[in-house]
Design goal:
Layout: H1 2-12, H2 26-35, H3 41-65, H4 68-78, H5 84-92, H6 101-120, E1 130-133, E2 144-152, E3 158-167, E4 173-180, E5 183-184, H7 185-199, H8 204-209
Antiparallel strand pairs: 1-2, 2-3, 3-4, 4-5
């Protein structure tokens, strides 16, 4: 099960919020715009998944020798679609108001880097498992949508993943949360931050210094 959990984490690592202000370089921005050419959320997710898995296969010889390649792949293929300041704000929850601007900015950087590294390690778990984007219920005209996905092993074991999407100001689909086999990742990280605040006696700087995202424990249904 650890193997399939890694694959899920690989695909959902940074997909926790819409891109409403995160700066990316010109190459990443062009790639993001190309992926938004389809109006359907299922098509968007299919394109994102295909591009990421293709990169995994192509770069396997390189990241087997140098783990840093893993992190670069995740950063390059996920960062353009994530508003890390918004994600960090949701994770901090009620403590966001207590934090200074400097602490908020620092947590954004720490949170982003920790996710890139943690979920980048999941790249090595991919071994050509079947990943299915399930069909939707028709054209989406509202500002929110969900996309169902399943990861199926060669033995037929399946792990369901639900993506929660929202249109940004430009009308493009962006991911704002993920539910992995019933586990809400956004809520999981918020609970972790709250627990860490208790552990470090409401010292936000200490929480940021020791922040490491906990991988959810996924069990077969």
């Amino acid at each position: 099960m650890k193997k399939y959990t890694g694959i899920c984490l690989l695909l959902i690592g940074g997909f926790l919020a819409g891109n409403r202000g995160w700066a990316v370089d010109a190459v990443q921005a062009s790639s993001a715009m190309a992926l938004q050419s389809s109006p359907q959320p299922q098509d968007f997710m299919q394109q994102v998944t295909n591009e990421l898995l293709l990169k995994i296969v192509e770069e396997r010889p390189h990241y087997k020798k140098d783990p840093q390649v893993l992190y670069h792949i995740v950063d390059e293929n996920i960062t353009p679609y994530v508003d890390f300041p918004m994600v960090a704000r949701r994770v901090m929850g009620q403590f966001y108001r207590q934090a200074s601007d400097a602490q908020r900015q620092r947590f954004v950087g720490v949170f982003k880097n920790s996710l890139v590294r943690t979920y980048g390690n999941g790249l090595s778990a991919y071994d050509h498992q079947t990943i299915n984007i399930l069909p939707g219920r028709g054209p989406q005209k509202g500002k929110t949508a969900t996309v169902q996905m399943e990861i199926v092993s060669s033995s037929g074991e399946s792990i369901p993943v639900t993506y929660e999407l929202q249109r940004n100001a430009a009308g493009a689909w962006m991911l704002e949360n993920v539910v992995l086999n019933g586990i809400n990742l956004g809520l999981t990280f918020r609970n972790q931050f709250t627990s860490d605040m208790e552990q470090y006696r409401n010292n936000i700087d200490s929480v940021i210094d020791h922040w490491v995202p906990e991988a959810p424990k996924v069990h077969q249904p």
